[in-house]
C-alpha cells in the first residue's frame, strides 16, 4: 500500500511539473532548429548566394552599357601686336587686347558592348553555376542533417536524465521512509542505532546523486537552448516516449541509399560541375565575336579671335552628334599551349572525381552496414534491459516484504534497491542509445529529414 501511495505521489508530482513547464515536443524542437539555428541560417544564406551567382545577371549573356561625360572651361586674355604694320591711311597698326576669352567644351557618350559568341564558354559556365546551386542545396541539407542529429542527441539526453531523476526521486523517498521506519523500530527496541545511521547514509547518497542528475539536466537544457537559439533560461520538459522504425523499412531505405545519401549526391553533383569545367576550358579553342555601339554628343563654345589683319571675329558655338556600330572577331590561334593544359587538367580532375564517387559509395555502404549492426545490437540490449527491470522490480518488491517482516537486513534491502535503480538507469541509457543509433542509420540512408521521429 505504501508503494502504491508513493507511485501516486510521484505521478501527481510529474503532472504538476509538466503543467508548470512547457512541453517541448520533438516536432516543435525540429521546427525551432530549422528556423533559428545559426548554422542552418548560415547554410540557407549560402544557398541564396549560389542562387544569385546562377542568375541571368551573372551569366555574361547581357550586354554592358557605359556612359561617359566631361566638361572643360578656360578663361584667357590675349594681346595681339603688329610691329612695323600700318593701317590703310598710313598710321601705325594699333595693338589689340582682349580679356575674358571664355571657352567651354562639353561631351557625353554611350558605349554598348555585347559578346555575340565566345566559344560557348559562358553557356557552359552558366550551366555550371546552376549545378553549383544544386550543390549548395545539398551542402545545406548536410548541415541540416548534422544539426538535427546533434539536436536529437541533446534532446534524448534531456529525456534520459529526466527519467533518471524520476527514478532517483523514488529511490530517495524510499530511503527517507527507511529512516522513519528505523527510528520507530529503534524506539521499540527492534534494531540498533546502526540501522538508522545506514538509512541516513543512503539518504545522503541518494540526495547527492539526485543533485548531480539535476545539474546535468540543467546543463543539457542550456545546450539545447543554444542549438535552438532561444533564451538560455528557457525551461521545458521533453517527450520521453520513443518509437522505433521497423527493420523492414530500414532495409528498404538502405537499398535506396545510393540515390538519397547526401554525401553520394554531392560527389555526383561535383562530377557534373567538373564535366562543365572541361567544356568551359575547351571554349578557348574557338573565336570570340563581339558587337559594339556608340553614341556621342559634343558641344563647344569658342571665344572671340583676332586675325592677322587686326580684325576681331566673334566666338562661335558648335554641336556634334555621332553614332557608330562595329563588330569584332578575336581568335587566339595559339596561346602557348595554356588552353590545352587547362583542358587536360580538367579531364584529370573529372577522372579523380569519378574515383572519389566510387570511394564514397563504398564507404557509405560500409558505414550503413556498421550502423545497422550497431542499431540492432543496441535494440537487443534495450530489450534485455527492459526485462532486467521487470526482474529487479519483482526482486525489490519481495525484498521490501521480507525487510518489513524483519527477515532480511537493511543492507540486503538496500542492495535490492540499488540493483533496481541501476537496472532502470541502464534501461533508459539503452533506450536512447538505440534510438540515436537508428537516427545515425537514417542519416546514412538519406531519410533523416523525411520521417517522423
UniProtKB/TrEMBL annotation:
Its main location: membrane. This is Transporter. Keywords: Cell outer membrane, Membrane, Transmembrane, Transmembrane beta strand, Transport. Signal peptide: none annotated. One of its GO terms (cellular component) is cell outer membrane. It holds the Pfam family OEP. One of its GO terms (molecular function) is porin activity. Belongs to the outer membrane factor (OMF) (TC 1.B.17) family. The keyword Transport applies. It is found in: Cell outer membrane.
Amino acid at each position: 500500500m505504501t508503494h502504491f501511495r508513493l507511485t501516486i505521489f510521484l505521478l501527481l508530482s510529474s503532472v504538476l511539473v509538466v503543467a508548470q513547464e512547457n512541453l517541448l515536443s520533438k516536432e516543435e524542437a525540429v521546427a525551432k532548429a530549422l528556423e533559428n539555428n545559426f548554422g542552418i541560417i548560415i547554410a540557407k544564406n549560402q544557398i541564396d548566394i549560389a542562387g544569385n551567382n546562377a542568375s541571368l545577371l551573372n551569366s555574361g549573356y547581357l550586354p554592358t552599357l557605359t556612359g561617359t561625360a566631361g566638361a572643360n572651361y578656360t578663361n584667357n586674355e590675349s594681346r595681339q601686336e603688329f610691329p612695323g604694320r600700318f593701317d590703310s591711311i598710313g598710321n601705325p597698326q594699333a595693338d589689340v587686347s582682349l580679356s575674358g576669352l571664355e571657352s567651354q567644351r562639353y561631351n557625353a557618350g554611350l558605349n554598348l558592348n555585347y559578346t555575340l559568341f565566345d566559344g560557348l564558354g559562358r553557356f557552359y559556365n552558366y550551366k555550371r553555376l546552376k549545378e553549383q546551386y544544386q550543390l549548395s542545396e545539398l551542402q545545406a541539407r548536410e548541415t541540416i542533417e548534422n544539426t538535427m542529429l546533434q539536436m536529437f542527441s541533446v534532446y534524448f539526453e534531456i529525456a534520459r536524465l529526466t527519467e533518471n531523476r524520476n527514478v532517483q526521486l523514488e529511490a530517495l523517498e524510499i530511503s527517507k521512509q527507511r529512516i522513519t521506519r528505523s527510528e520507530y523500530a529503534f524506539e521499540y527496541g527492534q534494531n540498533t542505532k546502526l540501522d538508522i545511521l545506514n538509512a541516513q547514509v543512503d539518504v545522503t547518497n541518494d540526495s547527492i546523486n539526485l543533485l548531480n542528475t539535476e545539474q546535468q539536466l540543467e546543463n543539457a537544457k542550456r545546450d539545447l537552448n543554444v542549438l535552438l537559439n532561444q533564451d538560455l533560461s528557457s525551461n521545458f520538459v521533453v517527450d520521453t516516449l520513443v518509437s522505433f522504425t521497423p527493420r523492414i523499412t530500414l532495409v528498404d531505405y538502405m537499398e535506396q541509399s545510393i540515390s538519397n545519401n547526401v554525401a553520394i549526391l554531392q560527389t555526383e553533383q561535383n562530377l557534373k560541375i567538373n564535366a562543365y569545367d572541361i567544356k568551359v576550358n575547351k571554349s578557348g579553342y574557338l573565336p570570340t565575336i563581339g558587337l559594339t555601339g556608340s553614341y556621342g554628343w559634343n558641344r563647344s563654345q569658342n571665344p572671340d579671335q583676332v586675325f592677322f589683319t587686326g580684325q576681331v571675329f566673334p566666338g562661335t558655338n558648335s554641336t556634334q552628334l555621332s553614332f557608330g556600330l562595329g563588330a569584332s572577331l578575336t581568335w587566339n590561334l595559339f596561346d602557348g599551349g595554356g588552353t590545352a593544359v587547362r583542358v587536360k587538367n580538367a579531364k584529370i580532375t573529372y577522372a579523380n572525381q569519378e574515383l572519389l564517387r566510387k570511394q564514397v559509395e563504398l564507404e557509405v555502404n560500409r558505414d550503413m552496414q556498421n550502423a545497422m549492426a550497431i542499431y540492432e545490437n543496441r535494440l537487443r540490449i534495450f530489450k534485455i534491459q527492459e526485462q532486467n527491470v521487470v526482474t529487479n522490480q519483482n526482486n525489490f518488491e519481495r525484498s521490501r516484504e521480507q525487510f518489513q517482516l524483519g527477515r532480511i537486513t537493511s543492507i540486503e534491502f538496500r542492495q535490492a534497491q540499488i540493483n533496481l535503480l541501476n537496472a532502470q538507469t541502464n534501461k533508459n541509457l539503452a533506450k536512447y542509445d538505440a534510438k540515436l543509433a537508428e537516427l545515425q542509420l537514417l542519416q546514412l540512408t538519406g531519410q533523416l529529414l523525411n520521417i517522423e521521429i
